[in-house]
Design brief:
mainly alpha, two-stranded antiparallel sheet
Length: about 140
Amino acid sequence: MTINEIQDNIIDDFSSFDDWMDKYALLIELGNALEPLDEKSKTPDNIITGCQSKVWLEADYKDGIVYFKGESDAVIVKGIVSLLIKVLSGHTPEEILDTDLYFIDEIGLKEHLSPTRSNGLLSMVKQMRLYAMAFKAKDNM
C-alpha cells in the first residue's frame, strides 16, 4: 500500500466521526494498539525533543526499507505516534522524504492539538524524515 493510500484510509476512518471527543477516543485506541517499545530502546538518544510528553522513536533500515517503532507516556500522543508509524513505516527513504503528510490537516489533527502537542507532532515528523535522510545518504556512499 502506498503512503497516500494509507493516508486516505486514515482520513476515511476519522471522517466517520463528527465529534472530536470520538476522534480523540480513536486516537487513544490506536495508541493502545501500538506495540510497546522495548525498555532498552527508551534511551535519551531515542527521545524526541520538542514534545511536552516523552516520545521515543526508533528506526531500523533493512533491504532499502525504513521501519519505525515508537511509544509515548501520554495516551493521545501515543495515538499520534501510531498514526505516523502506520503512514511512514515500511517505505523507502525516498518515499518518506517525498511525501506530503496531508492527512494531518485533513483529519483536523493540528488544529485540535495544544500548541505544545502540535510542536511535538512537527518534531516527530522532522525526526522521521531525518532518519530517512540519513538512511538515504548511507545508501549513496
